[in-house]
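Bug #77: duplicate submission created two jobs. Keeping one. Sequence:
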Amino acid sequence: MSKKQYVAYIGIDWADRKHDIHLYDPATGQTENYCIGAQPQDIQNWVTRLQQRYGNAIVAVCTEQKRGPLIYALCQSENLVLYPITPRTVANYRKAFQPSRAKSDRVDARILVELLLKHGDKLPVWKPESAELRALRQWVESRRMLVGEKVRLTNRITAALKNYYPQVLDWFEDKDTRVFCNFVECYPTLQAAQAATAEDLTQFFRTHHAARRSAITRRLKQIATAGIALTEDPAIVEPMQWLVATLIGQLKLLLVRLLELEAKIEALFSSLADAALFSALPGAGPHLAPRLRVAFGQDRNRFGSAQAMQSYCGIAPVRESSGKKNWVHWRWSCPIFLRQTFVEWANQSRHHCAWARTYYRMQRAKGNSHPAAMRALAFKWIRILFRCWKNREAYDEAKYIAALQREGSPIVEHLKT
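Kept job's structure:
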């Protein structure tokens, strides 16, 4: 939209309790500065006043928030065109003209309008995706956060058990399972586990679907030969038992909620267009395929090239030069969740894709660290997947390897060894 079509330009420096507003009216050339409350009714009253003042004319609103309560409130008004700007951009612009580093919310609101007026052609308009895709984005990000919480709880349980009941940690490979949680609840000490009969223990494992005979036999033997307790000091055992019981209660609830969340993600993801394209990717699986779908979005014109997407996601390295010096470093400002998505998928792909496994080994042979090799593999994967996504074609490994052969890629030679 042309700048002439906006009847007003507004910068909002948001905060938890108030929002600072800077308004520029191009018709009069006047500016206004004021604050509004952060409550939903305060925001709605402010939008209503804008509509009373400008009618249905279009107003440009610039804010440092791309997602969050302010955006969610403003996007409901059709006469507001939203321009989200990263806080780093505002901070760097402010420092360029204020070496003293003086900062205020009012100044930042003014800078947002100034950026919009002078560099509006470089700022993208916020375009909401479909409700289904936005919901999927929230679901997969919530799942990733809860998985991190599961790891944190498991680590704390492990650390506590090492103080009085370390043997149980050897009996179970996975500590983030219901069978492990229930076992520790039923047999909270080594003495309790060794006092149970072989029949009771066998029935416990079968009830929890751990019915593989070899695994049950191994565990029974480990329990019988576990030796003595690390300590029987009540000053250690009782507080630690209480802590473990509390943490296990949290972990069990989290495991149930994760199963519910994964079912929601699967149902929503399978209903979206291109779900089959992402599901068929090697190593994507039920968890990473929805995240990859979210990463690409629904607008196929959003990125003009694979390079643009690689840069946006933080996978492409940054090259800098000054005088005779040149150096390369990874991208510091990028959507962290998207970068994690591509790196985690690249790591899984090498277990399911021959050329990806070979390419990873080649990177390691060059002396690159594991994270650097993963980013290099992710860089390569984005180019491939971007073309598949743009052309609406499923990934075909045989077709890609044939292309590598035509190009004389060294990956093909290493595939043969």
